[in-house]
Amino acid sequence: MRQFAVRAERGVVGFSPVRALINTGVTAEWPRRARVGLKLVAPDDPACATYEEEREESRTEPVRARGPNRPSYREWAVRSLQEVGRAWLDQVGPCHVEVLDADLLDDGSRLFFATLAALSDERVTIRCPVGPATGPADPVPGVASARELRIEHLAASVGGLTGEESGFLHREAIGYLRSGDGWTAERILRTVLRHRPTPAAWRGLRAACAMLGRPLDIGRRPRPAPAPRGLGAAGAVVGEGRADRQERRPQGSLRHRRQNGLPEL
After folding, report:
1. 159 and 228 Cβ atoms separated by less than 8 Å
2. Dihedral of the CA atoms 92, 54, 176, 124 (nearest 10)?
3. Residue 107 — φ and ψ, nearest 5°?
4. Longest dimension (CA), the chain
5. What does pTM read for this prediction?
């Protein structure tokens, strides 16, 4: 029996330990339905189903159907993860998977490993140790694209984001939302909102939370981060607004008269 170890890591982009695991197989040889599901966990994988294949899947797969009988998001996600898990198992055969630092698993990865463990063919065992690992000495190397690395870098930024950077994160979040990864979309959008709480970002977060069945927590809207250097006209507008507010202060106020050396009334 083959043994694999993957390490969970804290981050914004989800499914990183899942991508590391399935990278031990050959995704290009998976059946179409598995490659459709692959977009949920590894959207950068070139083996993901093409647009034409996805359209064919939408015509033949009841889970995609609209209407009152349409399954919930979780049901759709589980079925997609089952397809991915089965395709991987068909290639690697019976195996044991050990998840290191399992307390850091993102929601999507946790659902994947629970789904993989629940497969009834008894080809796989999953262990998430609390103490020292007993599996392979070295975990399977993680895989991350340049796009994902940029997302993580910007999300970890303690300073402000430029308009281009926040726009990039917003576009990426919408991309994850469209591929079905509401977990990653939510985390990215909450990062964007900490820096630039725009109506478009709030609409995206509302859609992600609705998909996941989570509260929006609208009462705890984050305050915008300080404007970064190089904002140009946008920074000038902020400065003008502050100056304008100062000019509108009553010139007869005690503070104003003291600051300008005028006698107190």
Report:
1. yes
2. -20
3. -60, -40
4. 90
5. 0.75
